[in-house]
Amino acid sequence: MGSRKAALLLSSWKIARAYWFSEEKWSAWGLLLTVIALNLTIVYILVLLNIWQVNFYEVIQNYNYSGFISAIGQYSLIAACLVVVRGYQVYARMMLHIRWRRWMTEQYLSDWLYNKTYYRLQLAVDHDTDNPDQRISEDIELFVWLTLKLSLDLLQDMVTVLSFITILWNLSGVIYINWAGHQLPIYGYLVWAAVIYAAAGTYCTVKMGRPLVKMDFDQQRYEADFRFSLMRLRENAESIALYKGENQEKWNCHGGFGKIIGNYLRIIVVRKRLMWLTSGYSQIAAIFATLVASPRYFSGHIHLGQMFQIVDAYHHVQTGFSFVVDSFTRLAQWRAVVNRLTNFLISMEMVRTEPNKVYKMDICRKSCKEYSVSHLNVFLPDGSPLIEKFSLSIGSKDRLLIMGPSGCGKSTLLRTFAGIWPYASGKMIVPEGQKIMFVPQRSYMPLNSLRDTLRYPGLAQAVSDESMAELLAGCKLAHLTDQLHVVADWGQALSLGEQQRVAFVRVLLQKPDWLFLDEATSALDEHTEQLIYRITTERLAHTAIISVGHRRTLMAYHQKKLELDGMGNWKLVKINDLI
């Protein structure tokens, strides 16, 4: 148990420490110290209110009207100070919260996007990293809020206990109990009563609520999986409709939602028992102080004002000691969040480093006119060989067609050329200072205007609407020329064939020196495909083009053909020799 708690605290510190020693450390520590100072001020004001109660109830008991009015004035001043300080405390805490969350979100987003980590996480077969979007968007916010809430509340409770325990000890006096014929004195019995009561409540709460940690962890995962399944249904609506797969999708969604319901019902049972325990604990605590202090009051050792002071002081001490009872649900949630973020960090680090321990890919960038690979071996994520002992040099104006049966590694070879496939070894020389562009079978369509979609991911030079309209018309997309400034989900609004032609408009706008096409015309008819290739080769006469395709009609636009057989073997031939 102790080792698990130590591991949890160490994990949370590893997540948090980056911010507290970052370039924002001075402002972060300044805000934190401000919040702590305001918390201590609040405790001090509460002590003043506790002392004020003695005089207030005494003047009431003595029918002292002028003293009553004076006490009301004192209370108004103290209460006003408390309201102002609490307002600033909330403001400072929330400012620290949003600054910390912003920094962590930017950091995690950068790490996720760094060196194609987001892509490698999808490839990894032995890492359980589900829903990284939830880790970044939800778990970071929860971690920051819960860490600040729990740590600052714990600190304030500790200071509150230390401040009020002295008052409670002094007012407790001494009681004597008869033990084996002897009168044993018990000093500060009210303090010991508070400690014993809080310890019993803490033990019962931890014992009863421990299963909530895993349940909360699973609930977040099931919720995210269900959202993802609905998103997948929306994104693939046309394919599902054509397959008439509504019943299967409904069954899948019901299955995912069923996990949410089943786990939530288990959470309800545990939370119900916890609510019985914590509510009963709070209700008994409300009268417990009066009960344990009543012997001293009725024996005449304390008067009414001190009785109310004891009740108030006991409430603060007991509340401080009951931190675990009052915060157990948040503690369980915080533990689950720490575990998820820790797993996410570990997974990102592993997919960045593990392939490099096994596969040594030497990528060298230098000024040259050839894109070459030598002694290249390409593997699947499970280690199965895909292409072996591969060497190839592509000239600056070469046109290469890569063909072979499905699953032979054509697309994977292009991913290796792009430097995003981590399961490869060998040497690759990439021309430095030249524009290289890769076009997948289904190009990414950002949620933006059509003009910005065509410019994606960005153009150095300005392009007029007229030039874009001309290129659209040339690629048989004239019906889109009046929608350049329309914002839409173009990935859904356009057919796959239209999306592929949009991708070629991007190519013509970007004017790359090296163009890699991964079945980029697979959804086009042969006539349109020939039109697109003819426009591309004419407008980009000095661009090297490497295409992956199945149609033999593409051979007319290439000089060489690379054949893969799916058994690790390959053959490079000149197309003229085949005609």
Q: What average pLDDT do the residues reach?
A: 85
CATH architecture of the largest domain: Up-down Bundle
The overall strand count is 14
- The domain count comes to 2
Going across the biggest sheet, name each strand in turn: 8-11-12-6-13-14
- Main beta sheet strand tally, sense and closure: 6 strands, mixed
Helix content class: 55-70%
- Report the structural category: alpha/beta
Low-confidence stretches: none
Strand content: 5-15%
CATH homologous superfamily grouping of the largest domain = ABC transporter type 1, transmembrane domain
How many H/I helices?
17
Alpha-carbon distance between the termini? 75 Å
Oligomer designation? single chain
Radius of gyration: 35 Å
List the helices and strands and how they pair.
Blueprint (H helix, E strand, L loop, with lengths): L1 H19 L4 H37 L3 H49 L3 H7 L8 H41 L1 E6 L2 E6 L1 H21 L2 H24 L1 H7 L2 H53 L5 H18 L1 H36 L2 E6 L3 E10 L5 E11 L3 E5 L6 H9 L5 E8 L4 E4 L8 E2 H6 L9 H10 L12 E2 L1 H4 L2 H15 L3 E5 L7 H14 L4 E5 L11 E5 L5 E5 L5
Parallel strand pairs: 3-7, 6-12, 6-13, 8-11, 11-12
Antiparallel strand pairs: 1-2, 4-5, 4-7, 9-10, 13-14
Helix pairs in contact: 1-11, 2-3, 2-5, 2-10, 3-5, 4-11, 5-10, 5-11, 6-9, 6-10, 6-11, 7-9, 7-11, 9-10
Throw out a few tags for this protein.
64% helix, 14 strands, 6-stranded mixed beta sheet, 4-stranded mixed beta sheet, alpha/beta, 579 residues, ABC transporter transmembrane region fold, 17 helices, Rossmann fold, elongated
